[in-house]
């Protein structure tokens, strides 16, 4: 997801400065949100189902970023793999 957001940022059709800011800033912002709300050791970890929806939103943003960067099949693969992984984690009780 972080790589997808970075790829999108660096693929923007704008000036170099904006591409750098987006390419570094988007994954950094997603990592901060993940670390604050979703990570197992987060001080303010959300309880399910809110945690799931934040995870889903972040991965959907990553998938959407790949779609905007004209890599829709990679975006779909990212989202499908996330959902399979999350489903398997749910089945195993984690």
Overall number of structural domains: 1
Radius of gyration: 14 Å
| Percentage beta strand | under 5%
The overall average pLDDT, rounded, is: 94
Question: What is the secondary structure topology, with strand pairs?
Answer:
Elements lengths: L1 H10 L4 H22 L12 H19 L3 H20 L3
Structure description:
By secondary structure, this protein is mostly helical. It has one domain. Helix content is 76%, strand content 0%. The protein is built from 4 helices and no strands. The longest helix is centred in the N-terminal third of the chain and has 22 residues, at 16-37. The mean pLDDT is 94.
Summarize the structure.
The protein is mainly alpha-helical and 94 residues long.
Keywords:
94 residues; mainly alpha; 4 helices; 76% helix
């Amino acid at each position: 997801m972080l790589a997808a957001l970075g790829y999108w940022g660096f693929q923007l059709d704008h000036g170099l400065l904006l591409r750098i800011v987006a390419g570094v800033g988007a994954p950094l912002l997603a990592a901060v949100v993940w670390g604050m709300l979703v990570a197992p050791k987060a001080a303010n970890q959300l309880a399910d189902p809110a945690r799931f929806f934040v995870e889903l939103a972040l991965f959907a943003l990553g998938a959407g970023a790949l779609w905007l960067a004209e890599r829709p099949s990679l975006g779909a693969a990212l989202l499908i793999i996330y959902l399979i992984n999350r489903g398997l984690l749910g089945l195993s009780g984690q």
